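Quick one: Protease I from Streptomyces filamentosus NRRL 15998, structure tokens please.
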Amino acid sequence: MPQKILIVTGDAAESLEVFYPYQRLLEEGYEVDIAAPERKTLRFVVHDFEPGFDTYTEKPGYTWPADLSFSEVDPGAYVALVIPGGRAPEYLRNNAELRKIVGAFFSADRPVAQICHGPLITAATGHLSGRAVTAYPALEPDMQSAGATFQDTEAVTDGPLVSSRAWPDHAAWMREFLRVLKSTP
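--- reply ---
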């Protein structure tokens, strides 16, 4: 039976940051579930960088069904957690069920991959204090406020936590995450 990995996300998540790890982990033979505040068809977005803009732009992205709601998740059934970015983490960090899920992975010292704005969720759980992380560069003050040491690089591994800046860094992020997954007993 394949090991299971959980992706937690919601509406306005960055399409690439959900689908790249989803497909890459399936390719490696893991079973992957997507959980959201409720079981429904999620609406993702596409963030891109365009000349003349001070920040990224946002366009409608793909849709995809959530396999489970946060309240249905048994964290003990999963070997690892993935937290995509986009705008979703801004409101998801307020979800008490999600904070319990994330806390369970950190308490059990199981691998967690986070990218872009995803670290806003782990910051809200108090599990970034004393860790080295990266995130979307505009989040550097938020990471420091959460007690983390921010590094502006493709991927940062701190024990079982692997973080990355944004979708252009996918290859480095998943390479590190798979290394951590395969070295975890």
